[in-house]
Amino acid sequence: MAATFFGEVVRAPCRAGTEDEEEEEEEGRRETPEDGEVRQQLARKREVRFLRRQTKTTLEVSLLEKYPCSKFIIAIGNNAVAFLSSFIMNSGVWEEVGCAKLWNEWCRTVDTTHLSPTEAFCVFYHLKSNPSVVLCQCSCYVAEDQQYQWLEKVFGSCPRKNMQVTILTCRHVTDYKTSESTSSLHTPFLKALKTQNFREPPCCSLLEQPNIVHDLPAAVLSYCQVWKISAILYLCYTDVMKLDLITVEAFKPVLSSRSLKSLVKNIPQSTEILKKLMTTNEIQSNIYT
Amino acid sequence: MASQYDRAITVFSPDGHLFQVEYAQEAVKKGSTVVGIRGTDIVVLGVEKKSVAKLQDERIVRKICALDDHVCMAFAGLTADARVVISRARVECQSHKLTVEDPVTVEYITRFIATLKQKYTQSNGRRPFGISALIVGFDNDGISRLYQTDPSGTYHAWKANAIGRSAKTVREFLEKNYTEDAIANDSEAIKLAIRALLEVVQSGGKNIELAIIRRKQPLKMFSAKEIELQVNETGKKKEEAKKKKSKKTA
């Protein structure tokens, strides 16, 4: 016990601790059955589930165990997804092999049979003519507590090392730390970050310190680094976070990389597809003119 | 550091920034491109038309507005803020005419708009206007004028300028191509404005709106056909120039 200047008596924290104090703390820490139930319900709700929409069955093993691949391309965010839809997915016939269903504060996916690239969803495809190429389009937000589940259900507990992973994503340019004046930055621009096992030269300059990568792209890249998988992340810094033609086109240098070069067939047609995508999905916002 | 000093408009950061004003300038970049050219006998305003929803009436979405018979302005940024500024400017034009019995000069109305914008950067509880404007017109002395205002309340006179999305690209084009020959006559000035816009406008002539003011004449808005004609002529000239170049190198 201690007395303050004003004469009030306060309970002073005691580092030695007393038996009474420990009991009180334990009571506070002890979970009631209701708390436990709520926690379990929340954990069930936030579980990441992988299923095949065609058969409506859950995937029993991890996705890449069921569909082993040598090239795995992941697009995270609506601009990266639009880029893959326009420039890669028109190059052949892609078959959907799975989709992730998850729930969090930012992403409330519901069952849907029709998908457009701007809907919040996470879908996996493989190229019918070459099933060792797997592509993921993820336009939903995967929360921190769900990222490890996502990784385990995609890569499995013991992933193959002889595959190359390419991740495409966007970030707002205000997150980019540089000593240059921001008015001299020509947004959008690309930066790359790779794992130790990635040997090829990247298609753009590497991301400088002290910049860091966040969310699912960071989780995937870290996972690949730990498991010694060759992986590269292409991060586009842009000043427009919604679906934007100039931001999507900023990913074009990636088309010259070894993993994507063979998948690109018809660039003029891709540009047309991209324009159609923009007009179809343009948010009809009248705030700015 | 920015997060501590960017909430209130009236707070300077330690390095002298007014972040809300700078953020308002970012809002301007979300608007579609506007280009203004000052010729000898003509002033031209070209804008990238904002695409509208299928069921939306296109006529209401106007970026180029007349402030008076001899002055007009185009803006980029927040639509609602522009409506308020334009309305105040129009009232001021008429009030000036009634009081002083003379129409406003282009510089006067620009200064009025800039002063209005500056007031909103220094008031508690208000935010800056999220628009930049290009104001063009002819004064009584017959000289053409082009001014630009921005959310901070500054204004400057320009020979040619661009605001809005991709303004940097258009400005660089203008810096290379704005010559005395390029504005030698009215049609050259119009073509320069169209060429500048075509640097950044994706779908060509149908997404461009053009307006001109000639000395002692009111604002003229080009129709879609007239714009298409101008765009085609500009395209032809470009091809001819390319052919000439390839002949020279060959």
UniProtKB/TrEMBL annotation, chain A:
One Pfam family here: PAC1
Subcellular location: Cytoplasm
Sequence segments annotated as region (Disordered): 1-40
One GO process term, biological-process aspect: cerebellar granule cell precursor proliferation
GO molecular function: molecular adaptor activity; proteasome binding
Functional description taken from the UniProt entry: Chaperone protein which promotes assembly of the 20S proteasome as part of a heterodimer with psmg2. Chaperone protein which promotes assembly of the 20S proteasome as part of a heterodimer with PSMG2. The PSMG1-PSMG2 heterodimer binds to the PSMA5 and PSMA7 proteasome subunits, promotes assembly of the proteasome alpha subunits into the heteroheptameric alpha ring and prevents alpha ring dimerization.
The protein's name in its UniProt record: Proteasome assembly chaperone 1
Species: Delphinapterus leucas
Gene: PSMG1
TrEMBL record, chain B:
InterPro entries reported for this sequence: Ntn_hydrolases_N (IPR029055), Proteasome_alpha (IPR050115), Proteasome_alpha-type (IPR023332), Proteasome_asu_N (IPR000426), Proteasome_sua/b (IPR001353)
Subcellular location: Cytoplasm; Nucleus
Domain Proteasome alpha-type subunits: 5-27
One GO cellular component term noted in the UniProt record for this chain: nucleus
Gene3D superfamilies, per database record: Glutamine Phosphoribosylpyrophosphate, subunit 1, domain 1
Keywords: Cytoplasm, Nucleus, Proteasome
Pfam (any one): Proteasome
Family annotation (SUPFAM superfamilies): N-terminal nucleophile aminohydrolases (Ntn hydrolases)
Similarity field: Belongs to the peptidase T1A family.
Assembly, per entry: The 26S proteasome consists of a 20S proteasome core and two 19S regulatory subunits.
Protein name per its UniProtKB record: Proteasome subunit alpha type
Species for this entry: Monodon monoceros
Gene: PSMA8
